Amino acid sequence: MTVKITVNGRAEAVEAELDTPLLWVIRDELGLTGTKFGCGVAQCGACTVFVNGQPRRSCVTPIGTIPDADITTIEGVSDKVAKAVQAAWTEIDVPQCGYCQSGQIMSAIALLSEIDKPSDRDIDLAMNGNVCRCCTYHRIRAAIHDASKRMEG
Amino acid sequence: MNFKSIAILAALPALIAGSVYAQSSIKPAATETLRPLSDFAEIKDEKDRSVALFQEAGKVITHARCVNCHPASDRPLQGEDKHPHQPLVVRGSDGFGATGMRCTTCHGPTNVDHAHLPGHPLWHLAPIEMAWEGKKLGEICEQIKDGKRNGGKSLDQIVEHMAEDSLVGWGWQPDAGRSPAPGTQKEFGALIKAWAETGAVCPAS
Amino acid sequence: MTIAFAPSRRAFVQASGATALVLGVHIPLGNRGKAVAAEAAFTPNAFVQIGADNTITVVCKHIEFGQGPYTGVATILADELDADWNQIRVVSAPADVEKYANSAFGVQGTGGSTAMANSWDQLRTAGAEARARLIAAAAAAWNVGAGEITIDNGVLKHSDGKSGTFGEFVDGATRVTLTAPATPKTKDAYRYIGKHVPKVDTVSKTNGTAQYTIDVKLPDMLTCVIARPPRFAGKAKSFDASGALTIKGVKEVFTVPQGVAVLATGYWPARKGMEALKVEWDESGTEGRGTEGLMQEFKKLADDKGVVARNDGDIDGALSGAATIIEATYTFPYLAHAPMEPNDCVIRRTADGGVEMLFGSQMPTVDQASAAKVLGLDPKKVSITTLLAGGSFGRRATPSGDMAIEAADVLKAAKHQGPIKVIWTREDDIKGGRYRPVFVHKLKGGVDKDGKIVAWQQVIVGQSFMKGSPFESAMLKDGVDVTMVEGAATLPYQIPNLEVSAHIVEVGVPTLWWRSVGSTHTAYSTETFLDELAALSGTDPLEIRRQLLAKHPRHLGVLNLAAEKAGWGSSLPDGKARGIAVHESFKSFVAQVVEVSLGEDGLPKVERVVCAVDCGIAINPEIIKAQMEGGIGYGLSGSLYGAVDLDNGVVRQSNFHDYRVLRINEMPTVEVYIVPSEEKPTGVGEPGVPPIAPAVANAWAKLTGQRIHDLPFSRFVPNA
Question: Of A66, A68, B191, C177, which residue is least crowded by CB atoms under 10 Å?
Answer without folding.
Answer: C177
